[in-house]
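Entry 14. Structure prediction run on the chain below.
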Amino acid sequence: MAYIIDGKALSQKIRLDIKKETEQLKNQYGKIPGLAVIIAGEDPASKVYVKNKILACQEAGFFSVHRQFGADVDAETLIRTIIELNADDNIDGILVQLPLPKPLDGDAILPFIDVRKDVDGLSAFQQGLLLQGTPDLISCTPNGVIELIKSAGKEMSGKNAVVIGRSNMVGKPMAMLLLRENATVTVCHSKTENLKETVKNADIVVAAIGKAKFVTADMIKDGAVVIDVGMNSVDGKLCGDVDFENVKEKASAITPVPGGVGPMTITMLLKNTLQSFKRKVGASL
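Output returned:
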């Protein structure tokens, strides 16, 4: 039976540390970190995510701004809003909630975010720093995954790691972060041949493809660490990309859905916003 990695507990611990540091910085500089969240449309999941992010900011002692737009908003309005927030000294991080309603193109809008305020770590600049091995504001979900693996006391150096999924948001930065931990990394995707055999050889598996229960027990090596980034709805219930009930019998450690990676994503967002703020006021990073 696998050790269940509790993302909620780890997240609460890190958020408490962030709150304490924010209070110290407020006393020292008379300012607090600020996060702006931009959302367009009425996607229920997106609205829940934004609500949780704003609540997390309040709990951490951050200043937050919530800019809500209808699904019919045009790109120019969103870009103008981003430019205004770029110039706002009270704002240290800017987040555009994805996905945007069609026909809006996130790839055409996100580059307008000041790279120093790109707390989602999705800009070419921030991802380029990660690729070079000198990361600054790291993509939130992959960064949270690394913290979860470390919290379970699992070694990454020298281990075979497989990332299933190659998105710019998770898969690619996840591979780079595992490389930084000296793992040997393979990225699998829809065109991968012999995927099952590749995953079977992995000491660490990170599933991030958005297919419910795609990773089954017969794909997992005994004693592997399995991190489930997926968030899917099946018959009204949340489940991940991993067949949790069966895989947990083979893995040495595994994250549940919900309660695993999800809470850590928002926590890393707070961490990045705090880092951006500290750079602005000249505090040691």
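The chain has a mean pLDDT of 96.
Filed with the rest of this week's runs.
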